[in-house]
Specification:
Layout: E1 4-7, H1 14-26, E2 30-35, H2 39-42, H3 49-58, E3 67-70, H4 73-82, E4 94-97, E5 121-125, H5 134-146, E6 152-156, H6 164-175, E7 180-183, H7 188-197, E8 198-203, H8 212-219, E9 224-227, H9 230-239, E10 242-245, H10 250-262, H11 264-275, H12 282-302, E11 308-311, E12 317-320
Parallel strand pairs: 1-2, 2-3, 3-4, 5-6, 5-8, 6-7, 8-9, 9-10
Antiparallel strand pairs: 11-12
Length: 321
């Protein structure tokens, strides 16, 4: 009731939203909200209608929180455009962005998913749904294989919304003799083994708040073919080891696969960049979020003048009259 509260996940239960609203509006609690993306209101056609409704209810918390951490600069900019539309019950919040962490324990044990793989692996990780764009990635893999590029395409991801189209395309590709597989419900050990077995990865989502598989790939020393837009380009440029393509251009994706697998001279730079990449650890991310929440507590305790939220070069709030 009189402490600092961190809200790290999307809250969909209306009873919890009501309870939080009561606490945040009628107590001395200082609160920090982590925002992952605004996609359900930007592109509602990518989400089940029930989720969109719950997300809009969740966003009512933006009226009351004292600080907001976004997981990328892209989300930060999207939120800046939204905040003037929010009827605040408090002065403007402290807002910044903090990149998610990525560090992985070394794993030496193998997986049955890789024992039958004899060709280079092109790996695509993500929930199977239209936003993740697997149908175009699948078509790109087919084109590359039909042009003579020899590899096994592997998709790893659980079934998401409207995944039927991808499944039908996958069955058609297999009937045509393409070497492409889907693994659902893969364990952490299976996923780690598939990353180790891969020559490169593909993450060509149409939109993301961050794009964690990009970091997962490069931090495992595997170059990633990713989208030339949004947070994926932002994150890819930060870490290196990425090839950027138009996610809506199948030939662009297919060409990137062929260059990485067949042209060692052309791909040497991106492979080398992946091999020396570094990134924030989860411990460092957690520390940054805690420090940010404590800063919000300090500033809230001493009061902040109301105004319009604008930001300095470090991503922190500054104020205009």
């Amino acid at each position: 009731w009189n402490h600092t509260v961190l809200l790290p996940e999307l809250i969909a239960d209306p009873h919890h939203i009501d309870a939080l609203t009561l606490v945040l509006t009628s107590s001395a609690t200082r609160s920090t909200l982590i925002v992952y993306d605004l996609l359900p209101i930007q592109r509602p056609e990518w989400f089940p209608p029930t989720l969109v409704g719950k997300y809009v209810a969740y966003l009512t918390l933006l009226r009351h929180v004292d600080a907001i951490s976004c997981i990328s600069g892209v989300v930060h900019d999207d939120l800046m455009k939204l905040m003037p539309l929010i009827c605040r019950s408090k002065p403007a919040p402290l807002i910044a962005h903090h990149y998610l962490g990525a560090d992985f324990a070394a794993a030496s044990h193998s997986s049955h998913l890789v024992t039958s793989l004899t060709l280079p692996v092109v790996l695509c990780v993500g929930t199977i749904e239209p936003r993740k764009n697997q149908a175009r990635v699948l078509e790109a893999m087919m084109r590359a294989q039909q042009r003579g590029c020899r590899f096994t395409g592997v998709f790893v991801g659980n079934a998401g919304w409207l995944n039927g189209h991808f499944r039908a395309c996958l069955q058609d590709a297999i009937r045509q003799g393409c070497d492409i597989r889907l693994h659902e419900h893969a364990s952490d050990a299976d996923l780690a083994a598939l990353y180790r077995a891969s020559a490169c990865t593909i993450y060509c989502s149409l939109a993301e708040g961050f794009g964690l598989p990009v970091i997962e790939s490069v931090m495992r020393r595997r170059p990633c073919i990713t989208s030339d837009r949004g947070s994926m380009k932002e994150i890819g440029e930060q870490i290196g080891g990425c090839v950027f393509v138009d996610p809506e251009n199948t030939d662009d994706i297919a060409g990137a696969i062929q260059r990485l697998l067949e042209d060692t001279e052309a791909s040497a730079g991106v492979v080398s960049a992946a091999a020396r990449a570094t990134w924030t650890t989860w411990q460092e991310y957690g520390t940054a979020i805690r420090n940010f929440a404590e800063r919000a507590e300090h500033e809230t305790s001493f009061g902040r003048a109301p105004g319009i939220a604008t930001f300095d070069s470090d991503g922190y709030l500054k104020r205009t009259a």
